[in-house]
Amino acid sequence: MHRLFVAIRPPPGIRAQLLALMHGVSGARWQNDGQLHLTLRFIGEIDRHRAEDVVGALNAMDFPVFEIVLNGTGYFECNGRRTTLWAGIAPSRPLKQLRDKLENAFRRIGLEPDHRVFLPHITIARLNAGTGPIDDFIADNAALSSPAFAVENFDLFESLLGSEGAHYESVARYPLR
Q1: pTM above 0.90, yes or no
Q2: Of 41, 83, 84, 175, whose CB is crowded by the most CB atoms within 10 A?
């Protein structure tokens, strides 16, 4: 079984900007450089044959290069507990169109649709019950922004779970035109 997702890796300068933010919240499990990505579609655990179908669908994708921009910070919560700190992405029509195109391609090969609302973000920290307050971090970084950066490709990643958390390996890179 392979645990797969499709994501955009921000360029080195954007990753460095995000890494520089990662302090000031005790007990936060900050992401490392190799973990920084914008998930377009989580696929989940699939067998080798279905993974080959995913690769075929991605090989057939055709989409133009476009730009996106970092925009603010926020968090996700589950059952009233804050679980994730993230850097947001400014609303982008091309980004949503790419996400929709992926979703349609995956539906054609028989994957279950992803019913979650697409909220483009880059996870910067995982939080747990022992994590300190995050309100100051959110306030201090509310105006996070970046220069526009080009999205020239996306990757199919495999998520490998270990005792230190997830490690992501790019299985294939797909260039945009």
Answers
A1: yes
A2: 41
